[in-house]
Design goal:
alpha+beta, D-amino Acid Aminotransferase, Chain A, domain 1, D-amino Acid Aminotransferase, Chain A, domain 2, eight-stranded antiparallel beta sheet, 7 helices, binds pyridoxal-5'-phosphate
């Protein structure tokens, strides 16, 4: 990125350093924003940048915004167009993470949601692997996942990520790579910023969307790819100690991609290394996001339109 990074702010592209909000902004004071995290992958052989699943990400942003009474002044198609525009303007030729935000933008000391102006902004930064995909060690956190009637996990609310930050920080301070959070009822929900899958006796198992998880876009993709590989998939509640007897375990999300978990609470998972189903799905996912899987081509958008 040899030139000045650009952001989308107040309806146009501006230098990122000029895309600033006032300290009195409602979202800054109360966490009243919703956001997304998308990735675009650089394919060096094709000299093409592939934006992954923009439609589902922006549909989720819309659903999140409804929970917080935030108005987004763009339709999903327009949001996708602006994202492509932003990536092109930044002339990225590397893997990129994109962060759209819709937030309560008025300068107002008011704990509420109605009558407060909304705004939309977006920026993008180069990003490689966020965590190691080969084998991470996780801790079941003593922090619980925020429940649907507290701050809904289904909506990607900025303020809710304090819950993620507390658990992830604790895990790192205790010498682990990541945290797994249980619901208030004690079932497995998800990791601090990714969904979780377990393999037991050849079946891929993940908690249902009613277990206080973010309804992950990668999670949906993993289930589809698994079924296409004739791997049975079940959505059901998972007990904490099932994690200790799982044959395989992995986290998935736009940021973490597919990360094999090799240890939970100091107990090895399976053989203590990424298992065969995890590796199969990892390979399929990475081919998909780089635009190398014709079967899943509809899930990626070529940014430069060279393909
Ligand atoms: C709490 C949480 N769960 C799950 C995910 C995975 O969602 P997605 O696959 O849509 O990126 C994320 C975001 O990446 C997240 O922040």
């Amino acid at each position: 990125m040899p030139h000045e990074p650009l952001a989308f702010f107040n309806g146009r592209l501006v230098p990122l350093k000029e895309a600033n909000v006032n300290i009195a902004t409602h979202a800054f004071n109360y966490g009243t924003g919703v956001f997304e995290g998308l990735r675009a992958y650089w394919n060096p052989a094709q000299r093409e940048l592939y934006l992954v699943q923009p439609g589902p990400h922006y549909e989720r942003l819309w659903r999140s915004s409804r929970v917080l009474h935030i108005d987004i002044p763009y339709r999903v198609e327009e949001l996708i167009e602006w994202t492509v525009e932003l990536l092109r303007a930044n002339r990225f030729e590397e893997d990129v993470y994109i962060r759209p935000l819709a937030y309560k933008a008025d300068m107002a000391i008011k704990v509420g949601l109605s009558g407060i102006k909304s705004a939309f902004a977006m920026y993008a930064v180069p990003m490689g692997d966020y965590v190691s995909t080969r084998g991470i060690r996780v801790q079941v956190s003593s922090w619980r996942r925020i429940a649907d009637n507290m701050i809904p996990s289904r909506a990607k609310v900025t303020g809710a990520y304090v819950n993620a930050a507390l658990s992830s920080e604790q895990a790192k301070m205790d010498g682990y790579d990541e945290a797994i959070l249980l619901t208030d009822g004690g079932q497995v929900a998800e990791a601090s910023s990714s969904n979780l899958f377990m393999v037991r006796r050849g079946v891929l198992v993940t908690p249902p969307v009613t277990e206080d998880i973010l309804e992950g876009i990668t999670r949906d993709l993993v289930m589809e790819v698994a079924r296409d590989h004739d791997i049975p998939v079940v959505e059901r509640p998972i007990d904490r100690t099932e994690l200790y007897s799982a044959d395989e375990l992995f986290l998935c999300g736009t940021g973490v991609q597919l990360a094999a978990v090799v240890e939970v609470d100091r107990r090895p998972v399976g053989a203590g290394e990424a298992g065969p189903i995890t590796r199969t799905l990892q390979d399929a996912y990475m081919a998909l996001v780089r635009g190398e899987a014709p079967r899943y081509r509809r899930y990626v958008v070529p940014v430069y339109g060279r393909q």
